[in-house]
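User: Predict the complex with flavin-adenine dinucleotide.
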Amino acid sequence: MTRWHDFIEKDGRPPAWPYPIHYDKEQEIDTDVLIIGGGIAGCWAAISAARKGVRVTLVEKGDTVRSGAGGPGCDHWCNAPANPLSNVDPDEWAQHMTEPPYSNGIGTQIQCREDWDTLLEMEQMGGKIRDTKDEYVGAKGRDEKTKLMISPRYTKVHSYIPGMQKPVTLKSNPEGKLNNVVIRVWGSTFKPVLKRECKRLGVKIFDRVMVTSLLTEKGVQGARVIGATGFNNRTGEFMVFKSKAAVLATAGDWSLFLMNTELAGYNFFRSRTTTGDGAAMAWRAGAALTVMERNGVLMLGTGFKHTWYGGAGDASYENVPIVDANGKRLPWPTQGWEDAGAMRPTPENMEKIIKGIQSGEYALPFYGDFPGMPEVERRATWKLMLGEESTTRNITESYEKGGFDPAKHLLQNYSFIEGNSPAQWRTAGGGGPVVDWDLKSTLDGLYVAGEQTFSAGDHSYAAATGRYAGRKAADYSQQVGKAEISKDQVTLEKARIYAPVRRTDGIDWKELHAGIARAMQYFCSEYKTEHLLKMGLDALKEIEEVFVPRLYVLDPHKLMRGIEDLSLLAHGQAIINASLARKASSRMLNFLRIDYPKVDPPDWHKFVTVQMENNKVKVGEMPLDYWGDMKANYEARNKDYAGVYQGK
Ligand SMILES: Cc1cc2nc3c(=O)[nH]c(=O)nc-3n(C[C@H](O)[C@H](O)[C@H](O)COP(=O)(O)OP(=O)(O)OC[C@H]3O[C@@H](n4cnc5c(N)ncnc54)[C@H](O)[C@@H]3O)c2cc1C
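Assistant: Here is the predicted structure with flavin-adenine dinucleotide placed in the model:
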């Protein structure tokens, strides 16, 4: 492998940009349905739209074959209550999953109804979802007849409201059998299969193209979305996409509050390419956004802490028994399969563990006792769960190369010895465009799927909502005519995108990113006040007016990074505006206002929305159950849907 150092040593300078640069070129693409982001949701949206016989174009910033958080894999297919081994009713499960306020009832209902169908379709396309080679015979949760492998996650359920995490009995499961709603899958097979199916169905894929803006009818903010712009992050070529409907599937934003390229190789857990572009585009185009004020402490993958999944006790190690430094078992997981799904010890057990550390009953550090597990369970966790989940495979393979053998060695756990992340390192996740029962945003022609939706779920949620949004967008595209693109809107966007290319000096994308992150840390952190938030808006405005005009880039890749910064900036502005609009604290939103200390007062039990109208921020609100009766509304709008589970 050639290292950066080798280039400098050999030529005395960094390597030349390896692709031809065409900032002056422009390509126009005409399509019926445009998919923005080729991750899990985007690929599924493209496939289901293409199955409806319309022309589909998918645009992806990386390479669709492995891009996005789900590109490397997935081991838990969550919330599939319609699977044949499930012991719960899908509609009741959907209700249960949306018990915490500020959930997304529409996305969750779709997931619970269609997740199993989605997985079966994945199998038809060539993805592996069963233990067909009998590698895990004897493992808990494995069903010999179907060869499905139920995961230990959510086998028993608790209330999700903080402080009320008590076991819950569902009407559809009165005897309290294991719920069996999460399936272990061989997710590393999925993404290549999705790309192949897109190609087979004739989806036009544009890899390495960053979408930068939505085009609206007559260029008016709030009008119907009729296309998008982008540029190739290798050649710099400008792209104009004309569409009848678009699906926004660019996921969230994991680096708004923290900039760290050195320690973590830029890993903030989710994909590096998810930088709030979709939220920023939707915001500028005039879509209403909600739950933007929610943000939490960034616990994962900052590089200042152990790599998430690098230590026993993290998510997919959920059924690995934890022992103390003397080999004494801890109540974590609670000594068995049934509570393993809770991932972390219950609050009562956590208290016992902390007291035990203080009294000397438990000695630090703790370890995952792989050798103490039955052989087949150990293999299922190490090879199937960690091996298939995602970038986790890099971890298990590196450990093995370094001599680690789970049959012989304990794996260290980092809880209690590394401390928490500082409160100002936050996730910007949680918010997104308001959607209706078609997963349509408040803008005609714009649909939303996956982690781009507010209060989203994970991989299977992204798959099911992508599949759903794709078919709804295709239906819409068959009902509407084409609209003329506004040339002025394109010209303005082009000027915005290429301004940094024309400068040869100034500040680069890393400095800009660091400045934006610092402003967010100072003014939109754990404790908020009107004054601080307004200072935050001023700081971002100053960055926009003084520093953005100094941004310069050397090549199309850095241009992408620079334009991502502009998305971060707009995303930060939307978040601060939403934070100003919520004049109450909220535990569920992880939102603390010093000037409004009442926690979740009844008159603030509502969604706050923010949107741009004539370039001014407009604040609105919606009831917490604005989607109405989830079962009835889902069924009313999906009479033509032929899935395995169609309700009772
Ligand atoms: C290590 C790890 C393990 C995980 N394990 C599981 C698991 O076992 N089970 C589970 O359910 N979930 C899991 N998840 C979460 C799961 O991967 C995500 O929920 C899922 O990938 C979300 O899908 P998405 O399509 O919304 O986003 P992504 O899959 O991240 O896709 C978003 C795509 O949009 C593209 N994009 C972004 N901006 C632009 C732009 N401007 N223009 C064009 N393209 C753009 C990105 O490149 C990316 O490909 C895991 C995540 C990680 C990181």
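The chain has four domains: 28-62+200-295+424-479, 76-185, 315-412, 487-623.
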